[in-house]
Design brief:
- Chain A: GO terms for molecular function: ATP binding.
- The complex is a heterodimer.
- Chain A has one domain: P-loop containing nucleotide triphosphate hydrolases (Rossmann fold, 3-Layer(aba) Sandwich).
- Chain A is 33% helix and 28% strand.
- Chain A contains nine helices and twelve strands.
- Chain B is built from 16 helices and no strands.
- In chain B, helix 1 packs across helix 2 and helix 1 crosses helix 4.
- Classes of the chains: A alpha/beta, B mainly alpha.
- The interface between A and B is medium-sized, with 32 and 21 residues.
């Protein structure tokens, strides 16, 4: 299912404080779209507004022309998936049980999961590389394994667009690469992928498009080379940065040196 | 995996066996067979017609079982099932292992209304005043808690918990004041009995009053198991997976409160069943609500029927209140669970 996710004029106030001021975002199918910006820029809030987990005070989100606001929770979950940043799982479910829960939006109320669902779960486990953990309790997993399991749950949900809030922030470098490769893979299949990333060099390597948020507004959006510039780094993050090309990957490399002058 | 049908049949058999045994024991012991005959009595003409003549039970025993013991045992089983299921649902919705049916003010609301009716003498003067008043009190308390929590921060389970705690404290104070200032000492004892859960006077009328709402409520809660599984993982992730979390929270808590209200309005406050039974079951079979809810219902029914049996028999001729026995068993069990849990999970 290839779908374009489009946000227009998203405005959000939380507890009376304005967080987002009219944000536009276009996420094309088949592309990985990174959201970057300093802490408090509104990245997580934007992701939640896109997933309709918070109701924006203004603006609209559409999936290939279908407004998400009027949809029931089930239908919406078939169009947009969301992985929160907090990955704490303290319940004693098996990995397979957790991934199978991702099928919720596809199940009929009075019927149990069928062979198609079991198949989708098996494929999701394999694709995320956690098939060998299927019968383990999620409580016994490492942070990296747990994140892969929760991504497998998203795969089982099979939405048109994947939204992920800092999917690699707590992971070691091997898991970071594994997760980012998985995101590239999903985009390769024609899904739209939006991820909040704090590591600018990983964002530059993994994303087709980067949108830089600053104080609740889009400051810049474009290819990594267009967005990661010394001027924007100074203006948005307040740091003096040197940007060159990483000889190994050919993508922009950001070295933050100190506070901007 | 054991087939689902076998598990359900096994649980139903366990509950039936407990009812048969509990109703056959007492100062005058009868046989479980007598209880079975009493239970089958309404079907006698039909069984005779197909050539299955039933033996006739000893009339004195049959009447003792039919009119005194059976309603009490069935009331205990129904109440245990309802409280345990309500507790399991509330623990899931609040994502808090300490949640129990009393937390939303249900028990305090019922208790407050009941105590006021008892000490003012209304309950003794009017036959149905006590259960109806207690039920109304329970519902009023739940409405206040849900209403206040809805105004302050819609959708937050934590707020609901805090409002419930505040209301429980307020109602507790009213109850204490009403008892301390009761004009009649006999009413004080009556009120104290009620506050500790008392099945002594259980009648068929009590059973008939609650059987339909409790069974319907349990059936409805059993339809929410998928949603509860997702919500214990993370409420936000559940919403993103397609669960209408607001609906599940309101319907789940509402029905749990209703069946609790129905039970406590006839039995009085029975503590610990709603807290301990789901914990115990979760520890043994895991957190999957597709199994947790049905097993908690069965174990709750068995637990309270046996606790009530203990209340009747253990210190005979001194009769303890059922709620006292559940607390006396429940508190040490809970402590043991907590210690085992902290030993198992180094955190």
């Amino acid at each position: 299912m290839t779908r374009t996710l489009t946000a227009r004029g998203i405005a959000v106030r939380l507890g009376g404080t304005p967080i987002l001021h009219g944000v536009d975002l276009d996420v094309e199918p088949g592309r990985v779209h990174a959201l970057i910006g300093p802490n408090g820029a509104g990245k997580s809030t934007l992701l939640r507004a896109l997933a309709q987990l918070i109701t924006p005070d203004g603006g609209s989100v559409t999936s290939s022309g279908t407004p998400l606001a009027g949809l029931g929770a089930r239908r919406r979950a078939q169009l947009v998936g969301f992985l929160p940043q907090d990955t704490g799982v303290d319940q004693d479910f098996t990995v397979r049980d957790v991934v199978a829960m991702g099928r919720y939006a596809h199940l009929q109320r009075w019927r149990g999961p069928g062979p198609l669902d079991a198949d989708a779960v098996t494929r999701a486990l394999a694709r995320a590389g956690v098939a060998d953990l299927a019968h383990r309790s999620v409580r016994t997993l490492s942070g990296g394994q747990r994140q892969l399991v929760l991504i497998a749950k998203q795969l089982a949900q099979a939405p048109g667009a994947y939204l992920l809030d800092e999917p690699v922030s707590a992971l070691d470098v091997a898991y970071q690469l594994q997760v980012l490769n998985l995101l590239r893979d999903l985009a390769g299949d024609g899904s739209a992928v939006v991820a909040v990333l704090h590591d600018l060099n990983l964002a530059a390597r993994c994303a087709d498009t980067i949108t830089m948020l600053h104080a609740g507004r889009v400051r810049a959006s474009g290819s990594p080379a267009q967005v990661l510039t010394p001027d924007l780094m100074a203006e948005v993050y307040g740091v003096r940065a040197v940007i060159d090309t990483d000889p190994a990957t050919g993508t922009p490399r950001v070295s933050a040196l100190g506070p901007a002058a | 995996m054991v087939p689902r049908g076998a598990v359900v049949a096994g649980l139903a058999g366990l509950v039936l066996l407990t009812v048969l045994v509990a109703a056959s024991l007492g100062p005058v012991a009868t046989s479980p067979g007598t209880v079975l005959l009493v239970l089958l009595e309404p079907a006698r003409p039909a069984l005779d017609a197909i050539g299955l003549g039933l033996p006739v039970a000893e009339p004195a025993h049959a009447s003792l079982v039919a009119s005194i013991r059976l309603p009490r045992v069935l009331l205990a089983a129904l109440t245990g099932a309802a409280l345990a299921c309500a507790g399991a649902v509330m623990q899931a919705v609040f994502r808090n292992p300490l949640a129990e049916p009393g937390i939303t003010g249900v028990s305090s609301g019922a208790a407050c209304a009941a105590v006021l009716l008892i000490v003012t003498g209304v309950a003794q003067a009017t036959p149905w005043a006590l259960p109806i008043g207690a039920f109304a009190g329970a519902l009023a308390a739940v409405a206040v808690v849900q209403g206040v929590a809805g105004i302050t921060r819609p959708g937050s389970a934590g707020t609901l918990l805090l409002v419930g705690i505040a209301l429980n404290a307020l109602l507790g104070a009213v109850i204490a004041a009403a008892i301390a200032n009761a004009p009649d000492a006999e009413d004080v004892q009556r009120a104290t009995f009620w506050l500790n859960g008392d099945l002594t006077a259980a009648t068929w009328a009590d059973v008939l009053l609650i059987v339909v709402p409790v069974l319907l409520g349990l059936a409805a809660l059993l339809c929410l198991t998928r949603e509860l599984n997702l919500m214990v993982l993370s409420e936000e992730a559940a919403a993103a997976t397609g669960v209408n979390t607001t609906m599940v929270r309101h319907v789940g808590l509402g029905i749990a409160a209703l069946i609790t209200a129905a039970c406590v309005s006839v039995t009085g406050v029975i503590s610990f069943v709603g807290l301990v039974v789901p914990h115990l079951v979760r520890l043994v079979i895991g957190p999957d609500h597709r199994r947790l809810l049905p097993v908690s219902i069965a174990v709750g029914a068995v637990f309270l029927a046996l606790a009530d049996l203990g209340a009747r028999l253990l210190f005979s001729p001194v009769v303890l209140q059922t709620g006292v026995v559940t607390a006396v068993i429940g508190a040490p069990v809970l402590l043991a669970l907590v210690m085992r849990r902290s030993a198992a999970v180094p955190r």
